[in-house]
Amino acid sequence: MNDYLHNTIPNLKPFDYERHHDSHFINQQWVLVNGISKKKSVYTFRDDNILEIERKDATIKTSWTLSIHNIFTIETEDGIITVKAYFKDDDILVLNHQDKQEFALYINTTNYDEDLNSVEDIQSFLKEKYRKKVSNVIYEHEFYYISESEEFGPNTVEELTAKVKNEDISAYCFVRDINEDDYSKRLRIVDLMQEL
Fold this sequence. Notes:
Elements: H1 2-8, E1 13-14, H2 17-25, E2 30-32, E3 41-45, E4 50-55, E5 59-68, E6 71-76, E7 79-89, E8 92-97, E9 103-108, H3 119-140, E10 142-147, E11 150-156, H4 157-165, E12 174-177, E13 187-188, H5 189-195
Antiparallel strand pairs: 1-7, 2-3, 2-9, 3-4, 4-5, 5-6, 6-7, 7-8, 8-9, 10-11, 10-12, 12-13
């Protein structure tokens, strides 16, 4: 069962009680991605082992229990199920059904201003989330650049942007990450600037 999940969603981290329980799990609003086009459901795991499932027309209260490490039992309309919990990152939770080749994917919307009501909303959420993540990584990173057949750097993207604005260098100079040996990726300063 685990192979199925990890092949579908790589790089999952198991639920870690110390790290995730209080800050990332309890009292967070988790929108169920599976089936959102038919019916939106928001799951909130409460401290007292109450699970609130909010739907358009009603709120259902049921229970959940942490058994061992990252294994939970959840009481559903269909009975009690056993799931293993994983995080893709702080805002994406995956509950892997232990008896079937099924998993439920949730997005934490507690600190997100927009409503997630459709597949398109989820795509926008993920696009914005990862755009910010890429921007932060690029913003803090350093790059070498080639200008007039000579290599310069390393510089941050902010420094490179200032050089372009001052017309000291062209926005079309090739850059390479400080951890790369060559310019084979054909990345230019303008490409980095677009990600900020």
